[in-house]
Design brief:
The protein is about 50% helix and about 10% strand. The chain has about 475 residues and is mainly α. α3 runs antiparallel to α4 and α14 runs antiparallel to α15.
């Protein structure tokens, strides 16, 4: 299974795609834009009207799901809203804009308040209720994206309400702030802190910036430590995922050291906090020292184990972890970090080449084109890498990966959707492998958002606004 993503990426270079077909073929005139518009049309058909709220809709996680629609990023309507706002802006598409308006009404309709009048969208969650991907911080980010793309003052006010509620629910201890038991990007404090940072930057409200810094200091103190291989007298921070009473180290972006270190670097650089920036650098140093060299490539196991598995996607592979090193290269100007990013990206390319033997019989393995652990996440990363390096090979790889996403899309009336599939080992599984997901991380909203990244590669300034853990070029505060 772990060779599936590799085989698909390899097939991008070997097989004809919609981008390569000539004008006489039946392919669309503009396959990327047409596929994104098709995704908007298909997503619109999945929309569920909100009772007693005229014009408001929410979205199920997957086509035909009987579960009530969620509001969060991972599996819910906030992630779909982020895609729709970007599709409307990039394509100047009236249908996407109208659907984004209805989705925003739906998100607002799901707002409730607790006994202390603190707003929330999470109900009955045991973990991640305040998180970026799983809770209120992600809903707040959807409001921030709308504000950024539409200059919508009401959306900014809604995001501020989310931020104030998060601050009211936080545990504060001196100069530290935290919520649940997790430190990671998906469920935990690192992701929430990144939302508060972007909220503070957008609103100019100092309390949110100070809160992001306080969460950063809590993350520093929550770290476990491991001896440096370069200097055994020195301890380097790592961040664990706490699961069932056990601490598991998944060092890549979604649940471990790379993601938390990214948050610390981003916050430390933006706010001029050298302690946070240094902790992020030290987390990156652990990753550098523990990377596995594979020829000219670098890779990290999905989790520390006696039987390591190496993945290529955003969640547990270079498409996520490489972002930390792109960010460090931007903040510090040190070429060594960019080299790590490029070598980790080279692993994805080499991974594909090594899988060629597995497809010698001519069969083409299917890999979910998803954002979390599939080809969309790889596409997204290579777009970021391309914007930094301007390397034609990186640009070509991003476009080839996008072509695969187009190729495996399924025409459904005037719409486009994608078939789910089991992810590579160690990652999530997209509900039913025969189904078709709607949401951002494992569904059509994510596949189409990756295509928007490729559509806008030639723009001098990247116009796509997404989640706060995707930024790779920033100016550090002096």
């Amino acid at each position: 299974m772990h060779n599936r993503l590799a085989a698909v990426l390899l097939s991008l270079f070997a097989a004809p795609t919609l981008l390569a077909q000539d004008a006489a073929s039946a392919s669309p005139k503009d396959p990327l834009r047409d596929t994104v518009r098709g995704a908007v049309a298909w997503i619109a058909r999945q929309a569920l009207p909100v009772r007693d709220v005229e014009g408001a809709v929410l979205f199920p996680a997957s086509e035909g799901s009987k579960m009530p629609p969620a509001t969060n990023i991972y599996g819910g309507s906030a992630g779909v809203s982020i895609f729709l706002e970007n599709a409307a802006a990039v394509l100047d598409d009236a249908k996407a804009r109208e659907l984004a308006d209805r989705a925003m009404k739906g998100l607002k309709s799901a707002r409730h308040v607790d006994s202390r009048d603190r707003v929330s969208w999470a109900k009955g969650q045991m973990m991640g209720a305040d998180g970026l991907y799983t809770g209120d911080a992600g809903v707040g980010q959807a409001f921030l994206v709308r504000h950024a793309l539409r200059h919508d003052a009401e959306a900014l006010k809604d995001a501020i309400d989310v931020g104030d509620a998060l601050l009211a629910r936080a545990r504060v201890d001196g100069n530290e702030m935290s919520w649940g038991v997790q430190e990671d990007i998906i469920f935990g404090d690192a992701g929430t802190a990144l939302f508060l940072l972007e909220l503070g930057q957008a609103s100019k409200e100092k309390r949110f910036l100070e809160a992001a810094k306080a969460v950063g200091h809590s993350l520093v103190n929550a770290a476990a430590h491991a001896a440096s291989k370069a200097d055994p007298s020195k301890q380097l921070p790592v961040w664990m995922f706490h699961m069932g009473g056990n601490d598991v180290h998944m060092p890549n972006f979604s649940h471990g050291t790379a993601g938390v270190a990214y948050a610390l670097v981003r916050i430390g650089a933006a706010l001029g906090d050298e302690a946070l920036l240094q902790a992020g650098k030290e987390g990156a140093q652990w990753l550098i020292e523990n990377a596995v060299a594979d020829g000219e490539c670098l890779k990290w196991a999905a989790r520390e184990s006696s039987k390591p598995v190496y993945m290529g996607g955003w969640c547990h592979g270079p498409a996520g972890t490489g972002r930390l090193f792109l960010l460090l290269a931007s903040v510090t100007g040190e070429a060594r970090y960019l080299e790590v990013a490029k070598k980790s990206a080279a692993f994805v390319v080499e991974y594909a080449a090594n899988a060629e033997k597995a497809t010698a019989d001519g069969t083409k393995p299917y890999v979910p084109p998803s954002f979390c652990c599939g080809v969309a996440g790889v596409t997204d990363f290579f777009c970021d890498l391309s914007r930094v390096t301007h390397d034609p090979a990186h640009i070509a790889f991003a476009k080839k990966a996008a072509a695969y996403i187009v190729d495996v899309s399924i025409v459904d009336g005037d719409g486009r959707k994608w078939k789910n599939g089991q992810s590579v080992p160690g990652g999530p599984v997209a509900s039913d492998s025969s189904g078709h997901n709607v949401e951002l991380m494992l569904g059509a909203a994510g596949e189409a958002l990756a295509l928007l990244r490729v559509i806008t590669l030639d723009s001098a300034v990247d116009p796509v606004r997404g989640l706060p853990d995707r930024v790779v070029t920033v100016a550090a505060k002096k």
